[in-house]
Amino acid sequence: MRARRKGKDIDGWVVLDKPLGLSSTQATARVRGVLGARKAGHGGTLDPMATGILPVALGEATKTVAWCQDGKKSYRFTLRWGEDRDTDDSEGAITATSDVRPDAGQIAASIKQFEGQIHQLPPRYSALKVDGRRAYDLARAGKVPSLRPRRVLIERLDLIEVPDADHAVFELDCGKGTYVRALARDLAAVLGTCGHVAALRRTRVGPFGLDHAISLETLEQFGHSPALSGHLLPVEAALDDIPALTLSETAATRLTCGQAIQVPGEKSGTVRATASGRLVAIAEVADGAVRPLRVFNLDKKRSHDVDHGRT
Predict the structure, then answer these.
(1) Same domain (yes/no): 170, 86
(2) Tens digit of each residue's pLDDT (9 = 90 or more) over 176-191
């Protein structure tokens, strides 16, 4: 039998301001270690060279990770003109150079064609799987992974500043699956030059923004102190855009046992079912019947304070 992982049963979200140089997995492990949590996951990968919003799910919140990952994302990034890199960011090897440097007017005129639904070829150094292997593993082995263009949504792409001839700073709002590195690569190509991402900061993932964020350094300073509880958000924080459905305790018990319940007149779609103020399930409504998709095991007295984690 598999041994149960040691730690506290802490349920909720910590919105980490991920530092430079750590992978998302490493950063998540650090958060889990500081809190002494039994279970943790993250709501959207950030490259080691990127900083910013990394939502870390603890305990029952890990069941809502998929909904967090589906949320819209915002970034601020710096594009460096004149060099293509094999990773499409500053960590890769230079593969091509150009003396062309677009000015602000040329950049502003070109970015509009990247807004809306576009087709984007993912970077060869990505976590996408090709024949069961990660694309970056194939690329590191000297192979060219066979990747196909994917349809992604760019809601907003704004030129913020041109600090010098070699750099331009942008802000971006986009949908799931968008690669900022690929966007920078393609924008440079349209402008007749080379380019890669020199700096990248994520400023929002779904409902989580910088106003919710805590640095890893501050988190480690707080440790298990009561001050940290203010930075632990409830499990349902990732589900703000899903309508709530209030149930009786009897109906909630049936739902959490995997049974469908009847709610005549309820509109079809996904809901977050609650009872007595606590989240009991994410469910699907169709033809007046409510069926559970994910069920939550949260105490009726419900506290997400880290000091009350069960050992």
Answers:
(1) yes
(2) 999 999 999 999 999 9
Pairing of strands 232-233, 12-18: antiparallel
Same domain, 117 and 187: yes
Query: For the chain, how many structural domains are there in total?
Result: 3
Query: Whole-model pTM?
Result: 0.88
Indicate whether 161 belongs to any domain.
yes
| Catalytic pick among 9, 11, 17, 47 | 47
pLDDT tens digits for range 226-240: 667 778 999 999 998
Tell me the CA distances in angstroms from 161 to 48, 107, 168, 172, 199, one per residue in order. Answer: 25, 11, 6, 13, 14
- Domain around 30: 12-71+207-237
CA–CA distance, 10 with 303 (Å, rounded to integer): 9
Q: Is 70 an annotated catalytic residue?
A: no
Report whether 196 contacts 83 (CB < 8 A).
Answer: yes
